[in-house]
Amino acid sequence: MADYDVQYNKNTDDWSAKRAGASRTAGRFDTQAAAHDAARGYAARSGGGEVRDHRKDNNQIRNTDTVGKKDPHPPKG
């Protein structure tokens, strides 16, 4: 299982999908949506994990998506 972070890079003006704890990105994309979709695929192929989308302006986590495993904190209702 692997967790991925989707973050904006100000220096290259693009979005990256990066495995948690890795020094290099898994891929660079023009849009956050494309980076998120790629990160979901990477996580699914590695047996599941979390995909965390970060905000463009302050890099705080704005969304978490569980892939290929039971969601530890499912929404109520």
UniProtKB/TrEMBL annotation:
Q: Where is this region: Disordered?
A: 1-77
Comp. bias (Basic and acidic residues): 50-59, 67-77
This protein's superkingdom?
Bacteria
Bias kind Low complexity: ranges: 33-45
Q: Name one Pfam family in it.
A: DUF2188
Q: What is this protein called?
A: DUF2188 domain-containing protein
Source organism (scientific name): Nesterenkonia aerolata
